Amino acid sequence: MSLRLISLFSLILFSNISKAQDFKTFVANKQWILVTEKAEKSQLIRFVPYSKNLVTLNTMIWEFKPNGRLEYDYQSSEDVEACLGVDFLDLDVDACTWRPNPATNTILLTLKGGYASIDDFILKNEYEFQTFSDENQMEGFELVLKKKVFFRNLN
């Protein structure tokens, strides 16, 4: 009986440890399309793997670098005609960072950016990392807001 309990405890502990390490192995150095609009205000930030056929008008593509930095780019499909009034999230990549916390399976994300300029807001939030697979078997990930650490509207 106690061997089963130890085995169950080990399984739970191992799965939690592997989840915490998954962010780096699952996400880092890959391109991810940001699906969530107004990510800085959202309780959930969703990403899907970059694929040229998913690029529409002004698709924002993030890359989580292994050194804890973020890079991003915008791409638009050649089939889409540009229109006026599109919001562009612009980030100050020198001030944007991510840091995993394996003990809590969370990610501390710091973003500085905005829509009119890169000086509209600064945020630092703690997110829980979750992977998902949709109906088309596309694997992506979500950052679910766990705690707002800091937010400042610079306008």
From TrEMBL:
<feature type="signal peptide">
    <location>
        <begin position="1"/>
        <end position="20"/>
    </location>
</feature>
<protein>
    <recommendedName>
        <fullName>Lipocalin-like domain-containing protein</fullName>
    </recommendedName>
</protein>
<keyword id="KW-0732">Signal</keyword>
